[in-house]
């Protein structure tokens, strides 16, 4: 089993956070309308982006084995998030209530072949699996440094 690691550190700028993994740094922030500096995607936009990327990578891997040929695939995603949950309403979930996506293929394959391939992508996508089925998240340690 492979272990992945990342860290997140709040910067001095508004709601901006510096995240990194494998030496690659990314800035996460909120839009100005939510009190941020608009210097990067916010966490929920990153979740959508991670899902879209995972769907793309899954498709690329499966296409070789399934002999599915396409020139390009675009994944369009959107998610519904009710901020009232984040603001404390116990009847509303804190996160996305629903995520929807569509796949657009530039291909000579038939609609039936695209539909079947899309089913294979969905069944094998690791980020889709985590979002659909949940994953255990455990606070491991609290340190004073």
From TrEMBL:
GO terms for molecular function: peroxidase activity. Transmembrane segments: none annotated. InterPro entries: KH_dom-like_a/b (IPR015946), OsmC/Ohr_fam (IPR003718), OsmC/Ohr_hydroprdx_reductase (IPR052924), OsmC/Ohrsf (IPR036102). It comes from the Bacteria. Its EC number is 1.11.1.-. It is an enzyme of class 1 (oxidoreductase). The keyword Ribonucleoprotein does not apply. Pfam families: OsmC (PF02566). The keyword Repeat does not apply. Keywords: Oxidoreductase, Peroxidase. This is OsmC family protein. It comes from Levilactobacillus fujinensis.
């Amino acid at each position: 089993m492979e272990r992945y690691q990342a860290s997140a550190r709040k910067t001095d700028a508004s709601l901006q956070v510096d995240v990194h993994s494998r030496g690659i740094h990314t800035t996460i922030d909120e839009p100005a309308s939510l009190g941020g500096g608009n210097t990067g995607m916010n966490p929920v936009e990153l979740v959508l982006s991670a899902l879209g990327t995972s769907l793309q990578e899954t498709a690329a891997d499966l296409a070789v084995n399934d002999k599915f040929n396409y020139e390009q695939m675009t994944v369009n995603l959107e998610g519904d998030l009710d901020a009232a949950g984040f603001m404390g309403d116990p009847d509303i979930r804190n996160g996305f209530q629903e995520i929807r996506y569509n796949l657009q293929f530039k291909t000579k394959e038939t609609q039936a072949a695209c539909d079947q391939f899309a089913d294979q992508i969905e069944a094998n996508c690791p980020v889709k699996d985590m979002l659909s089925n949940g994953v255990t998240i455990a606070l491991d340690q609290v340190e004073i440094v």
